[in-house]
Amino acid sequence: MSRARAKLDDLSSPRWAGRAGLVAGIAGLSVAVLAGLAGAGRVVEGAVTLLVLLVLHVKFITETPARRAGSWWIVAVQAWLTYLPLTVFGAAWTPVCGLLTGALLVMAGRIRSIVLVLLALACGPVMLAAPDATMIDPVWALAAPLAGVAEYAIVSLARRAGQLAEARTEVMRKAVVLERRRFTRDLHDLVGHRLTVLVLKVQLLERLIAERDPKARDEVSETLELLRVLSSDVRAVAHGLRSSSLAAELGSARSLLESARVRCQIRVACRDLPHEVEEALTHALREGVTNVLRHAEARQCSVHLLERDQMVRLTIRNDGVRPPRRPGDAGQGLLNLAERVSGLGGWLEATSSRTGQFTFSVYVPHKK
Length: 368
Description:
65% of the residues lie in helices and 10% in strands. By secondary structure, it is of the alpha+beta class.
């Protein structure tokens, strides 16, 4: 069923509709020419000449030209096959001037030439100037160019519709890529952070149980709550829902760092941040705290969120820096964060000192 539906959709596409219209128009002219040739007793040689003319004509109007004008020599040969056979086939050959009109209009559209448009419309009427009036059918000389205009309209509309269909397909492809990228980024930034916290919580719980610390019961409750939050986060990522709260994340960061026995100092001196700025800073705070717990043996950590000259700065400073990882290994989290922040016109900074201090800063313009 799916294959049959795909074939039906293909047959109903603008390209096939244009081909059907083109075949119908050419068939109508061909029948008129062959009927006239039959009356003049020139069917065989006329049919062969017409076949050559039709092959050249269809090749030109359906080609995808490498150059702007395309195979212009085909139009020159077509013009020769339009007027010269009149001396042999007579008035029966008059309708083929409509094919030349269509070809000239196609070329005029490619090179944007008004002169070619005028020549195309004159393909039929110019035959009326023939020295022998019996060689020309005046009705077809005036009517055939209209068939060429109709042919050009069908071909142009079908080509434009095809281009629009391709553009729509490209837009859909880019949308899928962006959604896949969004899902991957959010999954890493949000769920990855929660999983890191869960691992730390379980390790802490294991230590408290071994020490028979009464705080173990409280840690169990916090771990269960964190699992519920993780479940909610997974649904949010799957459905593209974002409900980040910078204030809640600051409180969570303090609780998490202190549960890992890291003394935490938080200072906030800004308020009423735009949603997109607050969301970016929330992800930055998660990434910074996760890196402190993963890649340092910190004893102290400070988080400062300040605003000055319409620029919001989040700074996370900690001690206990471990030896650096491989050079150039920034981690997917920092790459995702850099992408988020750069989209808002901000940037990241990271510095470390010989005393084991590491400073991670995020700068985002406060756009009101």
